[in-house]
Fold this protein.
Amino acid sequence: MVRVLNEHFPDWRNLRIHESSPGGAIYDFLKRECANYVASQFFPDQAPGSQYRGFRCEDLGKQSFPDAHFDLTITQDVLEHLRDPVSALREISRTLKPGGAHVFTVP
């Protein structure tokens, strides 16, 4: 993921990035290196947009972020777990700025 960011978005450290369901070393790295990095997890018993266990609570298919808010959205091995990935993709598109990008992995 870092190689993709470096090659295709060389200024990524200065971009507004949302990552849904992050974990591991890449999460630690992005959190440390990017001041405008927002990590979210979905907690069904928590209010959308609230902070819980160090993450913002967001349902990827019904996000509480404003329109055109992020330069990049990252989802790594997330979409295949969703009941309605089309809604998530619509919401990702809605929350991306014009010219923004969704960088994702799926198995």
Remarks:
- The radius of gyration is 13 Å.
- The longest strand covers residues 96-105.
- The first helix runs from residue 2 to 8.
